[in-house]
Amino acid sequence: MAKLLGRMTAQRIELKSFNLAFEDRGFPLSEIALIHRIILASQ
What we know:
Helix content: 25-40%
Strand content: 35-45%
Strand order of the largest sheet: 1-2-3
Structural class: alpha+beta
């Protein structure tokens, strides 16, 4: 999945899709931080 950072606020991140067939996605920033910790710990 290739996305472009569309917007980032203090609480949310929005990713824009390069391919118009797929919709844009948004995530709470807390979920992104949690995934980062899991990936960092597994390396």
